[in-house]
Design a protein that fits this description.
A hairpin with a 4-residue loop joins β2 and β3. The protein has a 7-stranded mixed β-sheet with strand order 4-12-11-10-7-5-6, sandwiched between helices. A 4-stranded mixed β-sheet has the order 1-2-3-15. Helices cover about 35% and strands about 15% of the residues. It is of the alpha/beta class. The structure holds pyridoxal-5'-phosphate (PLP).
Amino acid sequence: MTTVTEISRLMPNYGVPAIEITRGQGAYLYGSDGKEYLDFTAGIAVCNLGHAHPAITEVISKQAATLLHISNLFAHPERTRLAIRLTQLSGLDQVFFCNSGTEANEAALKLARKYAASRGEADRVELVSLPHGFHGRTLGALSVTPKPAYHEGYRPLLPGCTTPETLEGVVDSISEKTAACILEVIQGEGGVRPLSAELLQAIQARCKETGALLIVDEVQTGVGRTGTFFGYEAVGIQPDIVTMAKGLGNGIPVGAVLARAEVAAAFGPGSHGSTFGGNPLAMAVANEVLNHVTAPGFLAHVREVGAYLEHQLAEHFDAVTGRGLMWGFTVPDAAQFVAAAAKNGLLLTTAGPNRVRMIPPLIIEKAHVDAALEILKQCE
Ligand SMILES: Cc1ncc(COP(=O)(O)O)c(C=O)c1O
């Protein structure tokens, strides 16, 4: 076991973890002391196919033995193939690849401003975000993440970013000066809060009316997490820009921004870039992830096991909300609850002081739900 002194060589932004993990298999993780944990965190909604998936391992090994990195100076067939598949899945036209959710959102915000500028709309610079939204930690993404604690010590943030006090205020916050409104259809870090289809459709209508772009952040909800490939498919909206990361690489860092052709055209040569974005390893792995998530029956499995999990949770807990295999519920002290569950062999995450979040690998079966519920009952 790594000692606390060794861990203290890491910057203290995360705090000191109580558990050291050295191995994973399917829906299970194993501590350096050999203890087995049922993993309902999936590396924060990343390892959707579970740990050490043989097909992913094989693709990584093959690609590592063939070609790891070439930069965007050269084309690569896996990049081209992934771009075609993601545009087909989203109904959007073009993609920019990067390495994380924050980077994807940062690129999307830049693209929205660039698009307005390319149309000669010099005043259209505002970015509207939603209360309880989370979009990442770079200065741009942070500026549309309205959690005061995350802003502490980093001000001044990006000018032109507004978040209304209430969800009801979002529609009125969007104007002819808005470059884009960015939102999650289910707010993950904000407590696993699904937004209503009515609100989302009203926001889309207001964006259309004012000429603002609608950016849907699918970093947490995408790649099957909510029982459809993209979360927005369930609520009857069609974004102008979609951002992705997390589950797309099953643990290999990758991010993507998808956009309508007219919008994407604003990113002319030299206007944005990433050394590692679109590298052959990440592209090959993401293509393999898509082979599984888009296979017949996969998303139906997510919906079926998800409905079972919801039903079980609702019998024991308050305010059970979510969709697919992304669920939250309310407890008096989420941190204490998560620590108690871990002691009993179940890994969970918090999503606010009173919210516990369950984001297991999408390959779990009902038996895993039963095992998790047995442990949860001991933590009540
Ligand atoms: C909705 C959403 N957007 C963006 C991010 C940031 O992604 P990353 O941590 O990969 O930069 C997250 C991370 O939790 C997220 O949940």
